[in-house]
């Protein structure tokens, strides 16, 4: 399996057609899905028939450089979740979203910061990215703390999408953080 990116403790790789069960298991944990669906799992057929094919199509669309990447611990190989580095569907390739979804067993170990920091480095030094952004719910303090550790700046507040209004804390809306190549280079 070809490695997309390595950190001290993590190896990121492209997903394959055989990885549906990893995504299904991740999205079945109510705590993982708390700020995404209110804790409701993603139906396995949705993962198999829509999510995974879209992930694989993204690699083709962006030459394998951008998309959603499976993250494994280098020591032992455990799947810990995924990281995302990709533009909006029809957006410019030099403005990309950074994100992650990690299994509970991987929480609190610094993996989100470690993987995200490495992806920022790759984006700004190898992929010609000008700006990276990330969004989360205002009440998702864990993700907001990661964005702050990455020296991303709070750029905007965003309304809660209608399909997320049932989620605890949705009345507070969301936040968007950004970092430009110039800001990253000054760190």
Automatic annotation (TrEMBL):
Domain of life: Bacteria
Name of this chain's protein: GNAT family N-acetyltransferase
Span of domain N-acetyltransferase: 10-182
UniProt xrefs under PROSITE patterns: GNAT
Pfam families (alphabetical): Acetyltransf_3
Taxonomic source organism: Streptomyces coacervatus
